[in-house]
Amino acid sequence: MSYQDAIQDSDIIDGLDVRYLKFFGLWQVINDYRTTGKKNNIIKTTVLISLLLAVPYVVFQFLSYFYIEVDIQKATFLNLNSLGAIQLCCRVFVFWIRIDSQSRLVNLMKKNFLVIPIQKQEAVYELYNEISKTTNFWCLTYILVNISVVILYIADPGVSVDYILYHTGNMDAVTTGRKKILGGWYPFPMNESPYYELIFLYESVCVLWAGVLIAVYFCLFFQVLCCLYAQFVVLGYDAQTFNFDLENGEMLHHYHLRLSDTFRRILQDHQNLLRYSDELRSVYNPLVTLTLGFGILVFIIGALQFLLGETMSPAFMFKMSKVFVFQGVEVFLYCFGSSFIEAASSDLQFAIYSSQWYKASKEIGKAVQMMMVGAKNGVRLTAIRMYPVNRETLMAILQFTYSTSTLMSRMTE
């Protein structure tokens, strides 16, 4: 990797809030890697703790199918509660493996990423500030949602150990046994001290660690996504508002040179944005694929439980709703964030067309035409390498969930 300078607060887009990244050490991880090319102890410790917490839990949950009686409701607990641990490991590993790319992508957070004329700085500041406020709102909303879900999980340990070990069906009907946080099985005497207390503590730490870290890493990815959107918006504004008039006494040749230089600058900025877009799509593809895949899985499991489950107790529905909210917000933000980038990058075509591109030199004019053709389809995230992610994806997920669950329900009947 080629070493880069650390990003200072003064470099960041005005209004963009990165305090939570600093608080959890991610900002230092990125800056240390940018300046030294090495992963620091913060990320190494994070990966180690995440593995120590998540791997045993996932292993025990899948082993439980061989040791306890499981119906569809209990299987729902076992599957859904494992998703958070799997997501945490995947998110941390993607950051660990692609930290070189992630350290470059945070360049999109810089307010001087594009070369904007001084006379437009005030208007550009307003554009950046408006998008920053929206980004901060959604990041804060997502963090609060995750923290609320974590608090509810710990404060409401509503799964009876006796239900997990000895019963199926309605979980509310089992009033005996101590309550635990997650619906998982462990190869220990779960009802006895000190095993019960140790399991309760372990699950509390797991839920807290996974809930907070998943939110922090997602918000880092989402902020970079929104900053790419902001850069496309600013470039579109620059392209649409630069029309020149021939100044008094100015030679026509000098006028065309000035015009061509401006278009050359915009073309270079656009090519730079496209390179960063390709890298962002490459880094985020596994994350987006995993998020959408888990979202579909959660919706299908919920639909099957509703269609095939023998009981729909209030406690079970409450726990299911927490998982839906946790997963649904991520799917929503990825789809809408990608749609915003797609709209802003494709609007660049009209912005250039509305300018005086036809007055530039032949060489520049041809390059501008190619840029307009390339900008027609826009830039967007993808899942499974080629599947486009946008607002229509949300409707496609719901339709696929309905079709799959209905088909499985009929086959069961």
Give the count of helical stretches: 12
Strand pairing plus helix content: what structural class?
mainly alpha
Question: Termini separation (Å)?
Answer: 58 Å
Q: Radius of gyration from the CA trace?
A: 26 Å
What is the mean pLDDT? Answer: 83
Strand order of the largest sheet: 1-2
Report the uncertain regions: none
What's the shape? Answer: elongated
- How many β-strands, per DSSP? 4
Strand percentage: under 5%
Largest sheet: 2 strands, antiparallel
What this model shows, in words?
The protein is mostly helical and 413 residues long. Helices cover 71% and strands 2% of the residues. It has helices at 19-23, 26-36, 41-63, 72-97, 99-105, 121-155, 161-166, 195-240, 252-308, 314-353, 362-375, 391-412, and strands at 159-160, 179-180, 382-383, 387-388. Helix 2 (26-36) packs across helix 5 (99-105), helix 3 (41-63) packs antiparallel against helix 4 (72-97) and helix 8 (195-240) packs antiparallel against helix 9 (252-308).
